[in-house]
Amino acid sequence: MKQICVFCGSSLGFPSVYREAATELGKMLALKKIGLVYGGANVGIMKVLADTVLQSGGEVIGVMPQSLIDKEVAHQGLSKFHIVQSMAERKELMVQLSDAFIAFPGGFGTLDELSEILTFNQLRITDKPLGFLNISGYFDLLFDFIDHGVKEGFIRGEHQQNLIISTDCESILSKLVDFVPVSVTKWIEDIKVESEF
């Protein structure tokens, strides 16, 4: 695994545990010689993570639309920096550049990015794994929503099984490396049958 994209916040979050986890993850990526792909910002958890990887001797690739660069939030010291024209193009390039994805606690942008990968994996547009680094139970309510979606018949159980969840940086990296996607070849036929009422 050469490069992992981390979706994370442009804010720091209030508890220090998020900054501490970002620092730990950054050091571990550099130690394992795994490049970081991220949104290119010099603020929030994004800055903590990128700076830690760089200070630890690792590679960091930023991807940012021109509209955000114009707001002066771009990191100026990255290994590589890609300028794109839209948020959609940003996500597309991040998918191309990365071998796997980690959802780190963040806000609406993080939710948007991880939702796209969940959908891509469901539709087999990509089989690149997505792991949730569930610091302090941050994603617990999202997992409750997914559980509810499975119970109500809107999310397939096999897609839920594709989720990688961990509270530990080293563990999540190991799980991403070992990931084998659950076979979902049958689910399209199943929903066709279910729709014949």
What does this entry show, briefly?
This protein has helices at residues 16-31, 44-55, 66-69, 87-97, 108-122, 140-151, 157-161, 169-178, 187-194; strands at residues 3-7, 35-38, 60-65, 80-84, 100-103, 130-133, 164-166. With 197 residues, the chain is of the alpha/beta class. It is globular, with a radius of gyration of 17 Å.
Write the layout of secondary structure elements.
Layout: E1 3-7, H1 16-31, E2 35-38, H2 44-55, E3 60-65, H3 66-69, E4 80-84, H4 87-97, E5 100-103, H5 108-122, E6 130-133, H6 140-151, H7 157-161, E7 164-166, H8 169-178, H9 187-194
Helix pairs in contact: 1-2
Our count of domains comes out at: 1
Strand order of the largest sheet: 4-3-2-1-5-6-7
Average per-residue pLDDT, rounded, comes to 93
Percentage of residues in DSSP E strands: 15-25%
Oligomer: single chain
Tally of individual helices = 9
Round the Cα radius of gyration to an integer and report it. Answer: 17 Å
**CATH class group:** Alpha Beta
- Helix-strand makeup class: alpha/beta
Q: What proportion of the residues is helical, as a percent range?
A: 40-55%
Q: State the major sheet.
A: 7 strands, parallel
CATH fold label: Rossmann fold
Order of SSEs, N→C?
Answer: EHEHEHEHEHEHHEHH
CATH architecture: 3-Layer(aba) Sandwich
